[in-house]
Specification:
The complex is a heterodimer of chains A (458) and B (262).
Chain A: H1 8-32, H2 39-53, H3 71-74, E1 78-80, E2 105-109, E3 112-113, E4 128-131, H4 137-143, H5 156-163, E5 169-173, E6 183-190, E7 198-201, E8 204-209, E9 214-224, E10 229-239, E11 244-252, E12 258-267, E13 272-279, E14 284-293, E15 299-308, E16 313-321, E17 328-337, E18 342-351, E19 359-368, E20 374-383, E21 389-397, H6 401-408, H7 414-430, H8 436-448
Parallel strand pairs in A: 1-7, 2-6, 5-8, 6-9, 7-10, 8-10, 9-11, 10-12, 11-13, 12-14, 13-15, 14-16, 15-17, 16-18, 17-19, 18-20, 19-21
Antiparallel strand pairs in A: 2-3, 4-5
Chain B: E1 8-19, E2 22-33, E3 37-41, H1 48-56, E4 61-70, E5 73-74, H2 80-85, E6 88-91, E7 98-102, H3 103-117, H4 125-138, E8 149-150, H5 156-170, E9 174-178, H6 186-199, E10 205-209, H7 213-218, E11 223-228, E12 231-236, H8 239-247, H9 250-258
Parallel strand pairs in B: 3-10, 3-11, 6-9, 9-10
Antiparallel strand pairs in B: 1-2, 1-4, 4-5, 7-8, 11-12
Helix pairs in contact in B: 5-6
Classes of the chains: A alpha/beta (458), B alpha/beta (262).
Bound molecules: adenosine-5'-triphosphate (ATP) and magnesium ion.
Magnesium ion binds next to helix 1 of chain B.
């Protein structure tokens, strides 16, 4: 006779695991409801479906998710985005419009393309820009080979996005074309706080910068209404030889939102990529930023600013995979954390033997504004090559009492003094943004951000 | 200048203060009247900077006794920013660097804080620009210093001049200059002293903390006080500085210890 006794904790674990499996299956089901008629897209989606089915929903027992607890998401049942999509007026999205890009913008509402809000008349003819499901003929075909082809496309949330792929912002900058006009890809979520259903929204961006081209891109997530939704976004950027992409990513989702986002960038020989990533919205957000080097002498600059308060959780996981010599990478990630908020930074840099003469620098600086604020930071440099210059560092600190006092001693209110110093901390990153109006908006956001501080008079 | 019957600006009586649990100020007494210039001298560690920071309201120091009346009000009851707005200005011995805060923004916010306190309208960036350019002349500073972060990468002398620029802008009732002369070459010293003298008038008062009689040739004090061990142990006229420079502090300390005035 054999008796099988399972301990209570084991059975609790298995029910939790079942719950996660059911949740993921439901996510997949909801995702796949997004319509498509295109056979090749269907094939891509089916492939991704298998990938999702092979995986499990992450928990804090997974090393990659150790500090980022998704249980709040697990407790939020999700439904597909309503069809047809809510129609918004241009006035309604006015606060998000950038004057520099008002005729070079694509707008998506709840992940669905909004043609009446989009306008690209300021962009040169040669550029291919539009929505995946409406971009017909050869233009669409030129982009097809790039879609869902980045390394890392198999990761569970990235693959999930692909399983529902129908609308997506596509940009192709042809060989030798340099565009000065910034391209604004605006993703607006509409979620009223009275809605009982939480939508799964899956924004998608594909950018291809051909040889010797240059472009400036703003990927922007915002919300109208303060309800709950889950943005599961994926952005893929291909930068060909000697091309240049300046990318600003703004995550200003609603307070109750969830956002898990991926930015995957492949950089060919002598290409240059800059990412300025601002994360300030959502109750729980995670940004995967992955750089894949495919040729030598690439330049990569990653600037990040995470601004958290209340009970927000904000996670940045970056990975720079170098595989060729003479690459240069510069990363600066700053977090400003108030109240009971929790920031996570994990920055991997891989420098294998093939990546000799790499020059890599990484710095993570964290400013804690309250005694309950928390940060988990983990720079992870894996260096095998022996002839390289790699530096990294992480700092965690509070506002310097002496700095506050110095400002007070000149008559500045303690709250204004704190605000000035917080802004000064953020400025180093905000100042990198190439678009003046966005820089101003973000500067104001930093200044107004409650943080228990009054609005600074500067 | 000593003016008969002029108003008392600052009156410090028996002031004692600790840092952590350690007493640093052990009974400071000082009275400053409008129009006067006072110098405080004394050996390293005797409490000069502590005294100035306690007056400015630095949170690291706990006042344990005594009183400070500034223009009729209880100074110790005020927050540091309220003290500044009511007319106290401390030029720091070691001015801080504040990366990321532009000097111009800093100066404008400070100036407008004071205006607001006086019930005046805040000045806009344009008018402020004009005003600050005029003040730059007083300390012979280049306008390029305005766009840099506060004191960041400034040389020692530039930091001190930036302090005097702030003083010129805020027009305090009582300016306390803590070793503003230390580390200055003779040209910079002349500029700084010239700036201070331009700002001195019968309505305000200046306290200079210094180790060197050199400064006192340019900013001529009415009184010189010598500190030791958290107290003022001797007060004299400007000739005391020369004597201190010649003989050092020991004789004053000894005289104070034995209770003999020599
Ligand atoms: N924040 C502090 N923490 C600990 N000790 C302090 C602090 N501030 C001052 N002290 C101590 O108090 C004493 C007086 O220091 P203070 O800086 O006031 O001297 P000072 O007269 O200005 O000297 P100096 O001529 O060197 O500038 C010293 O022993 C100093 O170490
Ligand atoms: Mg001192």
């Amino acid at each position: 006779m054999s008796l099988q006794v399972s301990s209570p904790s084991e059975s609790a674990l298995s029910t939790a695991a079942e719950k996660r499996a059911i949740y993921l299956a439901n996510l997949l089901d909801v995702s796949k409801r997004s319509p498509t008629t295109s056979p090749w897209l269907k094939e891509l989606r089916d492939h991704a479906t298998v990938r999702v089915q092979e995986q499990t929903f992450p928990t804090t027992r997974d090393e990659e998710w150790r500090f980022t607890d998704l249980s709040a998401l697990l407790q939020t049942p999700l439904v597909a985005v309503e069809q047809p999509v809510v129609s918004l007026s241009l006035e309604a999205i006015a606060p998000f419009i950038l004057p520099e890009a008002k005729a070079s913008q694509l707008v998506f509402v709840n992940g669905k393309y909004a043609p009446h809000l989009s306008c690209v008349t300021d962009l040169p003819e040669a550029i291919v820009i539009g929505n995946l499901s409406t971009l017909a003929g050869t233009d669409g075909e030129r982009l097809r080979p790039y879609l869902a082809q980045q390394p890392g496309a198999e990761e569970v949330f990235t693959a999930l996005n692909t399983t529902g792929l129908s609308d997506a912002a596509l940009v192709l900058v042809p060989k030798g074309v340099a565009i000065d006009t910034p391209i604004h890809l605006l993703f607006i979520a509409t979620a009223s706080n009275t809605a009982s259903n939480t939508a799964l929204i899956q924004p998608r961006v594909l950018v291809v910068a051909e040889t010797n081209s240059a472009a400036t891109l703003i990927e922007d997530y915002g919300a109208i209404g303060s309800g709950t939704y889950f943005n599961n976004s994926v952005t893929e950027i291909w930068i060909a030889e000697n091309a240049q992409v300046n990318h600003t990513r703004v995550q200003r989702d609603g307070h109750h939102a969830f956002h898990i986002g991926k930015t995957a960038v492949s950089q060919a020989r002598t290409s240059r990529y800059t990412c300025n990533a601002m994360s300030m919205g959502a109750q729980l957000s995670r940004h995967h930023l992955e750089i894949y080097q495919t040729g030598e002498q690439t330049e990569t600059t990653l600037n990040g600013l995470t601004l958290l308060h209340g009970d927000q959780i904000g996670d940045t996981h970056s990975a720079i995979a170098l595989t060729h010599p003479h690459g240069t990478t510069r990363q600066l990630h700053k977090c400003i954390i108030d109240d009971r908020a929790h920031a996570i930074f994990n920055g991997k840099v891989f420098v294998p033997k093939a990546a000799q003469l790499t020059d890599a620098g990484q710095l993570n600086r964290n400013l804690l504004l309250s005694s309950k604020a928390r940060v988990d930071t983990k720079p992870q440099l894996e260096i095998v090559a022996d002839n390289v210059k790699c530096t990294h560092g992480a700092t965690v600190g509070q506002l310097e009492a002496d700095e506050v006092f110095y400002l007070q001693s000149r008559g500045i209110d303690v709250s204004d003094a704190r605000q000035l110093l917080v802004y000064a901390f953020a400025f180093e990153v905000i100042d990198q943004i190439a678009i003046a109006s966005l820089r101003r908006t973000l500067a104001e956001l930093v200044q107004c951000r409650s943080m228990g501080l009054r609005k600074a008079k500067i | 200048m000593i003016i008969d019957h002029s108003n008392v600006i600052l009156s410090v009586k028996n002031l004692t203060a600790n840092v952590d649990e350690t007493p640093i100020l052990k009974g400071m007494n000082l009275e400053v009247k409008a129009g006067e210039i006072h110098a405080i001298m004394g050996p390293n560690g005797s409490g000069k900077s502590t005294f100035s920071k306690v007056l400015a309201g630095h949170p690291a120091y706990q006042v344990t006794g005594g009183e400070v009346i500034f223009q009729g009000q209880d100074l110790l009851a005020l927050e540091p920013e309220e003290r500044a707005r009511s007319g106290i200005f401390l030029a720091f011995q070691y001015p801080l660097e504040i990366p990321g805060v532009s000097n111009l923004d800093f100066l404008r916010v400070a100036y407008n804080s004071k205006r607001k306190h006086q019930g005046l309208e805040e000045v806009d960036a344009f008018d402020f620009d004009e005003l600050i350019r005029e003040k730059l002349g007083i300390v012979k500073m280049d306008a390029s210093f305005l766009s840099r972060s506060v004191n960041e990468g400034f040389s020692g002398g530039e930091k001190k001049r930036n302090e005097i620029l702030q003083m010129a802008l805020l027009e305090p009732k009582l300016a306390i200059l803590d070793e503003t002369d230390s580390g200055l070459d003779i040209d910079a010293l002349r500029i700084v002293a010239g700036g201070v003298n331009q700002l001195s008038n019968p309505e305000n008062a200046i306290v200079v903390i210094t180790h060197y009689q050199r400064l006192l040739e340019y900013i001529v004090p009415d009184y010189i006080h010598v500190t030791a061990n958290g107290r003022i142990i001797r007060t004299g006229g400007k000739e005391l500085a020369l004597e201190l420079e010649e003989r050092g502090y020991d004789w004053v300390l000894e005289a104070a210890a034995t209770g003999v005035a020599s």
